[in-house]
Amino acid sequence: MNSVEKPVTEARKEFADLVNRVAYTGERVALTRRGKVMAALVSAEDLELLESLRAGRLDLTQTGQAAAQQPERPQHAPLRIAAEYRPGGPPRPPGFGR
């Protein structure tokens, strides 16, 4: 999978387009501040995979029955896409008139 790094200030201007790229192409976007990765945009499938990995992970610092009695994490409904990705086109002025 492709991965792109974007400064947070730039990503803020392009947020809707970045969300669509992630949702439709599976591309990952790392959001940076002063060159350091602060957060990431990932597809719904990647998020579900991460959540399932975390839910199945045991705390290896505990031993015996305490480790086996960890509470279960709630399962979330799968995420759905609420926008359509439309690449290209002329740049639009900022504001609500989109």
Automatic annotation (TrEMBL):
SUPFAM superfamilies reported in the protein's UniProt record: YefM-like
Family: Belongs to the phD/YefM antitoxin family.
NCBIfam families: phd_fam
InterPro entries, per database record: Antitoxin_Phd/YefM, YefM-like_sf
Record field: compositional bias (Pro residues): 88-98
Pfam families named in the record: PhdYeFM_antitox
Name of this protein: Antitoxin
Annotated region described as Disordered, given as residue ranges: 62-98
Function: Antitoxin component of a type II toxin-antitoxin (TA) system.
Domain of life from the UniProt record: Bacteria
